[in-house]
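Technical note accompanying the year-one report. For the benefit of new consortium partners, we illustrate the data format agreed upon in the data management plan: each record pairs a sequence with a structure-token string. No post-processing was applied to the example shown here.
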Amino acid sequence: MKANLNSHTAKHQKSKLKNLLKRKRLFWEIAKAQHMCALVKVDAPLFWKKYRPRAPIMHKINAATLLEGFCALVGQSPPPLQLRTDHSAQVIESPPSHTLNADITLAELLQALKNLQRNKAIGLDGMKAEFILDAGELLHMPLLTMFNCFLAKGFPEALSIGVVHALFKGGDASKFDNYKG
């Protein structure tokens, strides 16, 4: 009987500790979001420095080996990189479709935001998912307006660009097969 009571007490203590840690994490996230909101008003450059993407990790694989591996996987050479010198917005027109051109609703946006994951790779815009998640309701309406504007007027070319990085899995760093991406 006494051993069963001790087991029950230990489970109860463990549950209390788990709830305490959840509350502590929640308060920390709220405090961090409040700090970042205050920081953007006081020192915008420092704010953006905290959300700036990390420097790329340099691997030991050389460009020729990477190109050879890419050609082996895809069966052709990658297209040449075309860097734009003018940074004016170039709009790509979306094909007309009556069923897909309905405005995005706030509920759809909130569902998409729930699917965002923290600590994932960022896009070329340098915007981390953490920024969007931590901003909370402040960004809901601007994002909704922006996405609906894209649907109405076309998507900017910059949103159609992606970057694939070779990520080292382990083993011999000079072999293409030891990378994923």
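Partners are asked to follow this layout when depositing records. The chain has two domains: 2-50, 63-180.
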